[in-house]
Amino acid sequence: MPRKFHGLKKPKVRQDWSKENLYNLSRATIPTAANKTFFQQKWLAKSITRAYHNPHVREGTWTRMFDRRLPAVVPMNYRYLARHDGSELASGRGSGLTKLSAKASGKGRRGDDERPPEKTPYMHMAYHPLERRLDTAIWRALFASSTRQARQFVTHGWVKVNGKKMIYPGYLLNPGDMFSVEPDRVLYATGARKLKTKSNRSLQHKVEPRPTSRSRKVQRKSDPENEESPDATATTDSAEGSGSVDKLPDEYEDPKQTMKALRLRARQILDESKTKLSGKRQQELRLFARSVWKLLSKARGEDKTKSKFIIPVDESVQDLEATLGEIIAKIPIDDLPKEETKPADGSNPQARADDAYTARKEAELLHAALARAQENPIDARKPYATPWQPREYMSAFAFIPRYLEVNQNICSAVYLRHPVARPGLAEVPTPFHAETSALAFNWYLRRR
Amino acid sequence: MPPRIHTGRLPQQVPAQCVPSSQCVKAAQHGPARSFHASSRAQTRLRRSMYGWLNGPGAVFREPMKGSTNYLGAYDKSGKLARLRLLKRDAEENAEDEGSKELETEASIVQQEIDQGVSDEEREIRAEQRAVARQEAQGGANGENPMPKERRSDLRPYPLNSNFRSQRVLSEELREEVYRLVAVKGEAVSAISARLGIDMRRVAAVVRLKTIEKQWIDEGKKLATPYSQSVLDMLPKTPLVRGVRHPYPHEDINDLPVHPRTRAQLFYPTSESRQFTREDAAKVFDSSLLPADKRIAHPQLIQYEKWALEDLPREDQQARREKIEQKEKAQKEEREREEAAWKERTIRSVPGRRWDFVFQDISAENVGKDGRGRQGVGYRYGVPHQDRKRGLIKIPTRVE
């Protein structure tokens, strides 16, 4: 392990998602060759590429793994194969008719492609045997934030291969092997870090100020559409927020807010469809609103004493959500047009029916929002910030090579085949220029 | 001995309480005394420039971009999206006659295809694919998402390496569809692979993983849904296109591995009049090498295409296809039966308390002439086992 892993003076690109690495990657250049001998060029190329391609594998081990035969494939067009038997390439003066050869060479998806065939970047495949390693594959599948972390997961026993615990990070995956990492570990590795051990808050958002309640109110006032009653606007606001993806984080933020919205929603359903709902439904809804209110007041009391209301409230949100779901299921559906949602007008029967419809619709939206909140709950006991959100700078490193098939839901992936080079594309992800890769490959050829 | 200081080098007004020492002199020369706390060490120039980049052009990478990938290759030096600039330029250039141009190109493509003698069925498929691609591009440009679609160069996470780009992954809906077609409807993996343009191994893996996912749901085990959603948002995806029989393919399904025998350049003289085909060429490289037609993953597609070229009626083509499929199925069953019979014959399993003991006949000749043959089993005189040597780690080579 080098002393300066993310040094800025002699920057090395590493296999991880840190901001230092991103910065080093952004300013990486091709090393100058003009003032170096060929041996020096090769040495430098080897040293910078090895710093990326698993430096934890000892050099001796790696040189034994190295293979100068680099795997490659050529995509074939079955339509072309059906039309020609291969003799067309030797027609004319022995190298194919000019027009035909142009066609044959452009074996892209369209036969009429006139571009010359792309070259196969063999040299980028110099480190392909290392991609077979279990720790590298875990990192490539986006289950860990670095190969070192992936390695730790393996040695600590969080990783299974084909359903059996595998504790060797150097295990070489075979085509068809399935590896799975414990989902909680994956969420920890890829999620935002916590501000403090005891809280659920994220470290990466502490700088940004949250919108205060006053500023939110100002926003609502400025909205020209919902200006009739402050109560109604507030509730529709929350319902809309739950519907769209943009406002989701807000919805997650505070279970207390969610509950308040829930109570208002129930009351609004009650108000708007008073004429439509049966007495029993009304009773249920009232009971529901009251129970939410009780829970809120209880949370407030605890807040004053211990400020640890998060977990109990979160658990009970699930119960409440289930109750609301039941109540919604009992509200009758109206087969009325939904385009027009006019403000409530007691005298008009059409408008009343509309109200019932919108009430049901909004209640459903709320139900969905709660389900989502349940999927990504706030829990201070977790080792990562909750609700879960991706770690900063992750998106710049997020790609999954084609030799893996990943199912993120169960944090498992299948190693389909060994990585190969194909025209215009090398499947081993490497941040270096082709020249550097070629020099490194040359270093490992025994004659230097 | 006290340190010797030349009085001539001392400044004129030395504070009265300060004992003349080298430190005191330094403080007097450099103004305010430096802090001795490690935490408040002054940032180096390199660190300052790093934070300058992270808070300037690099700030865009902190959070994922909504509805798009967010790679280093998509931005210029100042941290601006390269494709946005291009989009602006394009919009200025061809503000008018876009629709007519599009129709024109479509017509010209169709005409070209007719000239080339592409079959009707084939033309339909291609037209469908073009329509889907166009729809996608438009949806990216002016649908609900204002961000234009990524170009190929925008998908480069490593700016120096132009030969690597982030490739598309299967979207959640497409995976679900693959699972439905294979596991629920029971269609053949190869047929699904050819239709959707997904590698056969990938189709099998998707089904395998989806099966486990369903199992988890049944067991009430919690899925990593928030992780899944946000990771898939960061990646380029192949969407599920409904109502199209031949959607845009996900990947090349007929990859021909480069055989090591074909790496050498050969000079093979042959008569001019000879019809020298791929099959002959394969034989020249190696007597046992098969031609490309037989080494690709879906050789049956070539046959189907040949029938289409012969202008066979569709019903005939269908009948022949079914015949071939049945034949293959029968062959597969036969192979499986033979394997099972062989196992029955040669392998004997004795159930134990914890483990089953498996016995299989081996031949002592398998060790070969030098006694080190891979098939050889057991202790051989003069050939020591390596596995007790110091420093040799015994990592398993496969997990069943």
TrEMBL record, chain A:
GO terms for cellular component: mitochondrial small ribosomal subunit. One of its GO terms (biological process) is ribosomal small subunit biogenesis. Keywords: Ribonucleoprotein, Ribosomal protein, RNA-binding, rRNA-binding. One of its GO terms (molecular function) is structural constituent of ribosome. Residues 232-241 have a biased composition (Polar residues). The keyword tRNA-binding does not apply. InterPro entries: Ribosomal_uS4, S4_RNA-bd, S4_RNA-bd_sf. Residues 132-196 form the RNA-binding S4 domain. It comes from the Eukaryota. Residues 109-118, 247-257 have a biased composition (Basic and acidic residues). Gene3D superfamilies: RNA-binding S4 domain (3.10.290.10). Residues 88-121, 192-258 are annotated as: Disordered. Pfam families: S4. PANTHER family: 30S 40S RIBOSOMAL PROTEIN, SMALL RIBOSOMAL SUBUNIT PROTEIN US4M. Belongs to the universal ribosomal protein uS4 family. This is Alpha-L RNA-binding motif-containing protein. It comes from Polychaeton citri CBS 116435. The lineage of its organism: Eukaryota, Fungi, Dikarya, Ascomycota, Pezizomycotina.
UniProtKB/TrEMBL annotation, chain B:
GO terms for molecular function: structural constituent of ribosome. Residues 92-161, 318-341 are annotated as: Disordered. GO terms for cellular component: mitochondrial small ribosomal subunit. Residues 92-104, 123-133 have a biased composition (Basic and acidic residues). InterPro entries: Ribosomal_mS45 (IPR021036). Coiled coil: none annotated. Pfam families: Bot1p (PF12298). GO terms for biological process: mitochondrial translation. PANTHER family: 37S RIBOSOMAL PROTEIN S35, MITOCHONDRIAL, SMALL RIBOSOMAL SUBUNIT PROTEIN MS45. This is Ribosomal protein S35, mitochondrial.
